[in-house]
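[recover] target loaded
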């Protein structure tokens, strides 16, 4: 059974039910999802799934299941504190939902046409908004039920073996809390008049145990917005092209109204649900807002101390870059929040604690020479910058924005370039005499392509030089070079790719060609990133599973499922572990050996690292696979079918 990301993120396996409390579930396989807290049951007749349904929606991070002697099922909620739960019947199950189907019925607005907040609902501003491909969140509101407020407790206690004190802040939202934001087309709009056109209003509701997410889609008349189905929706808008592109006045943009499960990938329990109404975002807003929020009784003053520092995009040293990371990346890339690698981008941390500077990439170098997640002094060799710049496979963020955040990327590149280093790499602000010969030479590598892209974004290339760069880059044999320059293409030259939402049955029905698929699985093909971890037919690297005989082990459907949902089933030997050392550093990899004296990790660089037991402070097994999601985003349906056909042919006897 395959789940797309509109309903699941990281599957936790369970058990076949043999208890007595739920006779209707006997014989069903019960399992859940780490990120969304949902639990499903499926029935399998030995050949196919005959029935499948969601049976529970919990507020928990489900890390494992268990059974008692009577066959009743329990699950473990991994949190602070960790807790054990068992399935119980919901007396309200099956009753019609009274949740409002239109935005005007939610009670949030006194006047829906003008978006005037209702009594007890208040606007607020934040320091660093999320990048939304040019669309803009024009209004943010908070409403708390009755006289309730966000309560913050502060505990001060001495640190072990130190004279210093440690302060722990803990904030709890009251039941009935609501947060909304309304998004308009903004810079995506073709005309000035369309900039303020409302597209959607997103609503978060805290029921006392968990946050629930809902999306309302505005009608064409702009008089009201209707609730989007739980699975989400898509619509195509005609919008502005990239300002540096040529010979194009309009382009198609596929807008995604995120599903409720997709929303909760970011608004997860590790972030306490709310991302915008948070101490880091509120602290940096100038004026009287902080005092007003306290005076209104929404928060206590202690709430705003609940972070090391607020965001400060005006800080010329690193503030702008850290603000971009915090707003766009840190909801996944923080401790325990669901990111597939041990990268921590929330603003509370020092740069040295982010685990990115000088670190080898765990999910491939994207064609860079000597790649690092961040190479001090050299943004052109930094994988994080490339992931933000490229389209298709490997683009970050995985959900939400699909276009390059030019301003945010510049801030990050400038921050990297200013880092202390011995690198001789050119700086973004260096004067360069660009000409066709130099452009052609630079576009032979991904590193050089990043420099050319930045020069274009800075307006340093004339129209003839841009045309020359586009012609070279679009025809490049290097996939990442083509992906970096994809955003400059007119629609007529763009491939229709699968994107982030794949219809499994439709894709499996497309006939594939194994020979064409083998060409994709080469250093120049779209599947080149797979070779960074997998070994197949004499190519690649032994870090992840060897794919040389995968066709003899898995069906086409299973191969596709493992690509789309790499975290659904992880072999024990390929479940990554983070080892925190007593000196404050950490290592990540697969445990290849363990004894009473040491733990040996196989790291993403391919090296084996021996860690003496005495140096280890803690170990943590990651819930997600190191194999990145979205591997087929940049593939056409035919290319994906060809790739599956090729992998399916491996190891089979003719």
């Amino acid at each position: 059974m395959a789940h797309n990301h509109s309903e699941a993120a990281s599957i936790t396996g369970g058990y076949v039910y043999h208890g007595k409390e739920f006779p209707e579930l006997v014989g069903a396989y019960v399992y859940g999802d780490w990120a969304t807290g949902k639990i499903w049951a499926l029935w399998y007749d030995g050949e196919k799934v005959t029935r499948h349904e969601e049976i529970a929606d919990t507020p928990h991070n489900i890390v494992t299941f268990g059974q008692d002697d009577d066959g009743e099922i329990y699950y473990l909620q991994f949190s602070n504190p960790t807790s054990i739960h068992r399935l119980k019947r919901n007396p309200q199950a099956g009753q019609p939902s009274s949740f409002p189907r239109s935005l005007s019925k939610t009670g949030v607005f006194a006047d829906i046409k003008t978006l005037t907040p209702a009594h007890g609902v208040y606007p607020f501003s934040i320091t660093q908004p999320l990048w939304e491909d040019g669309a803009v969140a024009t209004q943010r509101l908070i409403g708390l039920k009755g006289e309730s407020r966000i309560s913050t407790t502060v505990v001060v206690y001495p640190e072990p073996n130190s004279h210093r004190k440690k302060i722990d802040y803990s904030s709890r939202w009251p039941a009935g809390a609501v947060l909304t934001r309304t998004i308009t087309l903004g810079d995506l709009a073709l005309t000035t008049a369309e900039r303020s056109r409302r597209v959607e209003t997103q609503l978060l509701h805290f029921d006392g145990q968990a946050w629930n997410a809902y999306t309302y889609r505005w009608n064409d008349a702009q008089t009201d917005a209707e609730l989007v189905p739980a699975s989400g929706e898509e619509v195509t808008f005609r919008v502005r092209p990239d300002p540096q592109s040529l010979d194009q006045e309009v382009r198609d943009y596929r807008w995604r109204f995120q599903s409720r499960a997709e929303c909760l990938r970011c608004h997860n329990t590790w972030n306490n649900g709310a991302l915008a109404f948070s101490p880091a975002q509120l602290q940096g807003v100038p004026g009287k807002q902080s005092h007003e929020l306290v005076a209104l009784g929404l928060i206590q003053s202690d709430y705003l101390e609940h972070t090391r520092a607020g965001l400060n995009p005006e800080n010329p040293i690193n503030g702008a870059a850290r603000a971009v990371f915090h707003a766009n990346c840190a909801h996944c890339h923080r401790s325990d929040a669901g990111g597939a690698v041990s990268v921590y981008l929330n603003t509370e941390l020092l740069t040295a604690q982010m685990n990115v500077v000088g670190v080898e990439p765990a999910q491939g170098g994207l064609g860079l020479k000597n790649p690092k997640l961040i190479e001090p002094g050299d943004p052109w060799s930094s994988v994080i910058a490339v992931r933000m710049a490229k389209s298709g496979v490997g683009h970050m963020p995985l959900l939400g924005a699909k276009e390059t955040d030019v301003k945010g990327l510049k801030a990050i590149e400038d921050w990297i370039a200013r880092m202390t280093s011995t690198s001789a790499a050119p700086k973004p602000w260096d004067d360069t005499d660009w000409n066709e010969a130099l452009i052609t030479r630079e576009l032979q590598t991904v590193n050089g392509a990043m420099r050319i892209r930045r020069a274009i974004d800075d307006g340093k290339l004339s129209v003839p030089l841009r045309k020359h760069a586009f012609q070279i880059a679009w025809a490049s044999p290097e996939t990442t070079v083509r992906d970096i320059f994809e955003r400059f293409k007119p629609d007529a030259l763009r491939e229709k790719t699968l994107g982030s939402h794949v219809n499994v049955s439709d894709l499996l029905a497309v006939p594939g060609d194994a020979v064409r698929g083998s060409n994709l699985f080469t250093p120049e093909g779209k599947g080149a990133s797979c070779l960074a971890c997998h070994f197949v037919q004499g190519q690649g690297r032994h870090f992840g599973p060897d794919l040389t005989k995968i066709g003899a082990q898995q069906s086409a459907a299973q191969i596709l499922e493992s690509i789309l949902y790499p975290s659904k089933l992880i072999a024990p030997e390929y479940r990554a572990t983070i080892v925190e050392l007593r000196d404050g550093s950490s290592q990540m990899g697969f445990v290849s050996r363990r004894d009473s004296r040491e733990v040996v990790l196989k790291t993403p660089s391919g090296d084996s690292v021996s860690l003496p037991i005495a140096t280890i402070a803690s170990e943590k097994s990651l819930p997600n696979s190191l194999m990145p999601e979205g591997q087929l985003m940049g593939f056409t349906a035919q290319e994906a079918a060809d790739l599956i056909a090729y992998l399916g042919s491996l190891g089979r006897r003719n």
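[recover] notes: The chain has a mean pLDDT of 86.
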